[in-house]
Protein 1
Amino acid sequence: MNFDRSLKIAPSILSADFAAMGAECEAIEAQGADWVHVDVMDGHFVPNLTFGPAMCAALRPHIHTVMDVHLMIAPVDPFIEAFAKAGADIISVHPEAGPHTHRTLQTIRGLGKKAGLALNPGTPLDVIEYLLDLTDLVCIMTVNPGFGGQKFIHSQIEKVRRLKRMIGDRPIHIEIDGGVTPETAPLVVDAGANVLVAGSAVFGGGSVGQPEVYGRNIRAIREACMAAV
Ligand SMILES: O=C(CO)[C@@H](O)[C@H](O)COP(=O)(O)O
Ligand SMILES: [Fe+2]
């Protein structure tokens, strides 16, 4: 599993063609994606609905790299095992999605998966201070969760810098999710992020029939970060 802490581009398939998801996952991987980011939404924790564990299981044979599953569902605990069985490699949860986040992270690790914590723009870093020893990835949301194609929230850059200091030498990935483009990506990489989720900036202008556009879009983000890396 490609889990080292070099720069990773993780396209969000929320912006892919839902009628061709398997082919879309294969296409982005062939075009240079490092991980595949899967946004799970329940219409309750966030105001949108996407897909569940059955979709993850169906996509698993089409994803040969890390399947990074971002759960925007509450309560989250009853579904952790189903996503683990569906083949998720990383399972990220929001601390607001259950009463015992410490136990939730233990459960994820107990199932042999990497444990992630996703923080909304309004959620302070203090919430995760006593959770870091159980955490493999912290996802800083740079939009309010629920939709692709939203505008990057610049106040989160300082949060990434503070998180980087807070993590110290623990082996934890810093992921950025929302509004990542060739313009915003270097700002967060400079602040300490190493995983960039990008939906509209990867899939925009392309299609399964024109996957080279995805390749150009991924390269544009990666190259924009080179100086910051
Ligand atoms: O989790 C989410 C949204 O809730 C994201 O993963 C988005 O899907 C990112 O989309 P863009 O902002 O890159 O278009
Ligand atoms: Fe996401």
Protein 2
Amino acid sequence: MTPHEPPESALYRTLLESTRAIPWKIDWATATFAYIGPQIEDLLGWAPTSWRTVQDWADRMHPDDRDRVVNFCISQSQSGVDHEADYRALTTGGDYVWIRDVVHVVRDLQGNVVSLVGFMFDITERKQNEHQLLQLQQELQELSFRDGLTGVNNRRKFDAVYEREWQEAQRTGEPLSLLMFDVDFFKSYNDQYGHVEGDECLRRVARALQQAAHRPRDCLARYGGEEFVLLLPGADASSARAVAQRCMQEVAHAGIVHAASPLGQQLTVSVGMGTALPGTQDDSKRFLETVDRCLYRAKHAGRNRIEATA
Ligand SMILES: Nc1nc2c(ncn2[C@@H]2O[C@H](COP(=O)(O)OP(=O)(O)OP(=O)(O)O)[C@@H](O)[C@H]2O)c(=O)[nH]1
């Protein structure tokens, strides 16, 4: 108790200064701190006496938060509206602590703002949890678009990217090429080496195809069991053919032995290929079917080859 402090005032002070929330008061006319709880020193390291003006408060805020928070708090206070703001406050050690400031605007009988009183809460832990949750959500979303076996995009992701790129090609008038791959004689590969080796084989094929796709917008996906697709936005027929040839070379370089293949000792793939210049009336599904028919032709013409749309 300070010398002339009445007992209940001392009680309030004890209550205020023993909470984890940090109380403060700002005199509106002078924009100076009339009071800040001593707990602030434990949290941020700055002594209560060093909190003199509103500028001290703003200066000890993360630069990325400062304008947003200061402008918001000033405009809310001017309008006499109670408010809350989250921001990172600087510690004397140079770190930042997430604070939630809960502000009550005190007005006189005429409605003029007299002072601001509030509490600062340390919400660092909550923010860290939020951040972790957000990261987890992103990882989950990322996983939901990946094929579990090979790690490349899955069919769901491909469908979404394909529709988006189709519309983009319609808008820009750029070509859109599509390659479809099917592993040759894969059933006999499984029969010969077993499903575990078969799975490993699909992973190696996926890696090989991925190596042949160089541009950032190229999208490789596992389309079905032993089928892959590679979408090549912006690629015309001749660049698509070059990529298709590179894919076959990469698969050959992977050197996957397939002793039972009637085509030799190595695993091969068949490729269907198409290039579209999608007009507004054109149908994306029809183009997929056309390329799928090319793949079918490649299979029936003997496999280990590329067949393209006319
Ligand atoms: N190991 C493994 N095998 C798979 C997977 N998905 C599909 N398959 C197998 O892939 C084989 C595909 O066989 P088919 O469609 O008859 O074709 P193929 O033997 O490759 O013959 P062609 O395509 O005509 O050259 C089937 O035996 C499927 O069981 C998978 O995830 N792992």
